[in-house]
Protein backbone atom coordinates (compact mmCIF):
# COMPACT_ATOMS: atom_id res chain seq x y z
CA UNK A 1 0.00 0.00 0.00
CA UNK A 2 1.41 3.34 -1.06
CA UNK A 3 0.55 6.65 0.53
CA UNK A 4 0.90 8.46 -2.78
CA UNK A 5 -1.00 6.04 -4.99
CA UNK A 6 -3.20 7.84 -7.46
CA UNK A 7 -6.86 6.97 -6.97
CA UNK A 8 -8.85 6.03 -10.08
CA UNK A 9 -11.57 8.43 -11.16
CA UNK A 10 -15.15 7.25 -10.77
CA UNK A 11 -16.83 6.28 -14.08
CA UNK A 12 -19.12 9.34 -13.99
CA UNK A 13 -16.30 11.85 -13.33
CA UNK A 14 -16.96 13.59 -16.64
CA UNK A 15 -13.37 13.42 -17.89
CA UNK A 16 -12.58 12.95 -21.54
CA UNK A 17 -10.71 10.02 -22.98
CA UNK A 18 -7.54 10.79 -24.89
CA UNK A 19 -9.31 9.98 -28.13
CA UNK A 20 -12.20 12.37 -27.33
CA UNK A 21 -9.75 15.13 -26.37
CA UNK A 22 -7.85 14.71 -29.64
CA UNK A 23 -11.11 15.24 -31.57
CA UNK A 24 -11.64 18.71 -30.08
CA UNK A 25 -10.53 21.76 -32.04
CA UNK A 26 -8.68 24.58 -30.26
CA UNK A 27 -9.70 28.18 -31.04
CA UNK A 28 -7.76 31.32 -30.19
CA UNK A 29 -9.29 33.64 -27.60
CA UNK A 30 -10.20 37.07 -28.93
CA UNK A 31 -8.32 38.63 -25.99
CA UNK A 32 -4.98 37.25 -27.19
CA UNK A 33 -2.69 39.20 -29.49
CA UNK A 34 -0.13 37.21 -31.47
CA UNK A 35 2.67 38.55 -33.61
CA UNK A 36 5.58 37.11 -35.51
CA UNK A 37 8.84 38.55 -34.24
CA UNK A 38 12.02 38.85 -36.34
CA UNK A 39 13.49 35.62 -34.93
CA UNK A 40 10.65 33.75 -36.69
CA UNK A 41 8.70 32.70 -33.59
CA UNK A 42 5.34 33.82 -32.25
CA UNK A 43 4.99 36.22 -29.33
CA UNK A 44 1.68 36.20 -27.46
CA UNK A 45 0.22 39.00 -25.37
CA UNK A 46 -2.22 37.54 -22.83
CA UNK A 47 -4.56 39.27 -20.39
CA UNK A 48 -3.68 38.69 -16.74
CA UNK A 49 -6.43 38.16 -14.20
CA UNK A 50 -6.06 40.29 -11.08
CA UNK A 51 -7.69 39.14 -7.88
CA UNK A 52 -10.28 41.63 -6.67
CA UNK A 53 -8.65 42.09 -3.25
CA UNK A 54 -5.27 42.86 -4.80
CA UNK A 55 -6.85 45.12 -7.41
CA UNK A 56 -8.60 47.15 -4.70
CA UNK A 57 -5.41 47.44 -2.69
CA UNK A 58 -3.35 48.47 -5.74
CA UNK A 59 -5.94 51.11 -6.69
CA UNK A 60 -6.04 52.46 -3.15
CA UNK A 61 -2.27 53.02 -3.18
CA UNK A 62 -2.28 54.42 -6.71
CA UNK A 63 -0.31 51.50 -8.15
CA UNK A 64 -2.91 50.46 -10.73
CA UNK A 65 -5.21 52.51 -12.93
CA UNK A 66 -7.69 49.69 -13.56
CA UNK A 67 -6.60 49.00 -17.14
CA UNK A 68 -6.27 45.31 -18.01
CA UNK A 69 -2.81 43.94 -17.37
CA UNK A 70 -1.09 41.87 -20.06
CA UNK A 71 1.70 39.32 -20.01
CA UNK A 72 3.97 38.63 -22.98
CA UNK A 73 5.01 35.06 -23.77
CA UNK A 74 7.44 34.06 -26.50
CA UNK A 75 6.86 30.58 -27.93
CA UNK A 76 9.68 28.35 -29.12
CA UNK A 77 9.81 27.03 -32.71
CA UNK A 78 7.62 24.00 -32.03
CA UNK A 79 5.12 25.99 -29.96
CA UNK A 80 4.98 28.58 -32.74
CA UNK A 81 4.31 25.81 -35.28
CA UNK A 82 1.41 24.52 -33.17
CA UNK A 83 0.07 28.06 -32.66
CA UNK A 84 0.03 28.67 -36.42
CA UNK A 85 -2.00 25.48 -36.91
CA UNK A 86 -4.75 26.56 -34.48
CA UNK A 87 -7.60 27.74 -36.68
CA UNK A 88 -10.72 26.43 -34.94
CA UNK A 89 -11.22 23.80 -37.65
CA UNK A 90 -8.28 21.44 -37.13
CA UNK A 91 -8.63 19.03 -34.23
CA UNK A 92 -5.87 18.56 -31.69
CA UNK A 93 -5.24 15.15 -33.28
CA UNK A 94 -4.77 16.71 -36.72
CA UNK A 95 -2.40 19.29 -35.26
CA UNK A 96 -0.42 16.51 -33.54
CA UNK A 97 -0.27 14.51 -36.80
CA UNK A 98 1.04 17.54 -38.68
CA UNK A 99 3.62 18.21 -35.96
CA UNK A 100 4.74 14.56 -36.08
CA UNK A 101 5.13 14.80 -39.85
CA UNK A 102 7.06 18.09 -39.79
CA UNK A 103 9.44 17.20 -36.98
CA UNK A 104 9.64 13.44 -37.62
CA UNK A 105 8.18 12.57 -34.22
CA UNK A 106 6.43 9.46 -32.98
CA UNK A 107 2.65 9.96 -33.26
CA UNK A 108 2.05 9.25 -29.56
CA UNK A 109 4.87 11.61 -28.53
CA UNK A 110 3.41 14.36 -30.73
CA UNK A 111 -0.09 13.83 -29.29
CA UNK A 112 1.19 14.07 -25.74
CA UNK A 113 3.24 17.20 -26.47
CA UNK A 114 0.35 18.93 -28.27
CA UNK A 115 -2.14 17.96 -25.55
CA UNK A 116 0.09 19.35 -22.80
CA UNK A 117 0.81 22.55 -24.76
CA UNK A 118 -2.90 23.10 -25.45
CA UNK A 119 -3.70 22.43 -21.79
CA UNK A 120 -1.18 25.11 -20.79
CA UNK A 121 -2.61 27.60 -23.30
CA UNK A 122 -6.10 26.83 -22.02
CA UNK A 123 -5.11 27.46 -18.40
CA UNK A 124 -3.71 30.84 -19.43
CA UNK A 125 -6.88 31.74 -21.29
CA UNK A 126 -5.20 31.86 -24.69
CA UNK A 127 -7.44 29.20 -26.25
CA UNK A 128 -10.71 27.36 -25.78
CA UNK A 129 -11.72 24.09 -27.40
CA UNK A 130 -14.76 23.34 -29.52
CA UNK A 131 -16.33 20.11 -30.67
CA UNK A 132 -16.68 19.28 -34.32
CA UNK A 133 -20.16 20.86 -34.36
CA UNK A 134 -18.64 24.20 -33.26
CA UNK A 135 -19.97 24.31 -29.71
CA UNK A 136 -17.53 25.50 -27.03
CA UNK A 137 -16.49 22.91 -24.45
TrEMBL record:
Entries under InterPro entries matching the protein: PQQD, PqqD_sf
Protein name: Coenzyme PQQ synthesis D
Taxonomic source organism: Solidesulfovibrio fructosivorans JJ]
Amino acid sequence: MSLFKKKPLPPDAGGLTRRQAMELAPVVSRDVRAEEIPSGVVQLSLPVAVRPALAGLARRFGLWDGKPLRKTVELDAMGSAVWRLIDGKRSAGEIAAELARRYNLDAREAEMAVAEFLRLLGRRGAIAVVGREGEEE
